[in-house]
Amino acid sequence: MGIRIVTDSTAEISQNQAGALGISVVPIKSVFADCEYRDGIDLMTEEFYEKLQAAESLPTTSQPSPGDFEAIFREALVAGDQIVVATISSKLSGTWQSACLAKEVLEADGSLEEDVIYIIDSEQTTIGLNILMQRAIQMRDEGMNGKEIADALEKAKKDVRLYAVVDTLEYLHKGGRLSTASKVAGTLLNVKPLIAVDEGEVKVVGKCRGLKKAYDEIYELVAKAGGVDFGQPFAMGYTGDRERFVQFEEISKEHLGRHEPTVVGIGCAIGTHVGPGAVAIAFFVQ
Prior knowledge:
Number of domains: 2
CATH class of the largest domain: Alpha Beta
Oligomer: single chain
Shape: globular
Number of strands: 13
Structural class: alpha/beta
Strand order of the largest sheet: 10-9-8-13-11-12
Order of helices and strands: EHEEEHEHEHEHHEHHEEHEHEHE
């Protein structure tokens, strides 16, 4: 019996990477005025930001359907696999619910004779979900079974921290991921907002004038959280052009030393709500 690890495209794992890692990635959809695109399949990251800048109105996102998960679940069950699913926070998307509904369909029609599907609400997204998936793959490769991996992920997700500097709060506000009060405060001060994913929600945790000060403040937040556990996966990411990320990467070397994070370009699903010009770090606390 094998282990099938499943996540969604906000984990910033490409379909090619997923194939090499032996996992499945269910795409979230970006909806522009002209068409609906599956994240990482119909629309790649660079193409997305080109379309975003040219768009007259902001795109929206659409969660995967229960059927998207059901197809993967049925394939895994035929292969005799246990299934471990970790999705974007249920407070940010209905993706977790879609996975749960797919499991219920299999239970109802008798396809699921025993409980071998474990579904985790990661309470994270983007690179926070990415490092949880890295940990899940490590545990699978160490020979842990589905329940052991799921139980470990439920505990591990409480130790994940994600901090980011965004260029503007406009995208988060228009996408319904941030309150009007938080958005207006950031705009009026004309500063670079710092955000975090906390208990599954996006929250403003600071505001700084100038990028250098904002990047330094991220590492003050990292220190206050307890510091990076370098024995666990950690990651950095950016939206849009990599040029903005270079400065953050250089400042990060002062704090991270010889330790090398996973670096990813953040794709369509999250880019829709954050916009270009954001940088982020996600890690397990010590």
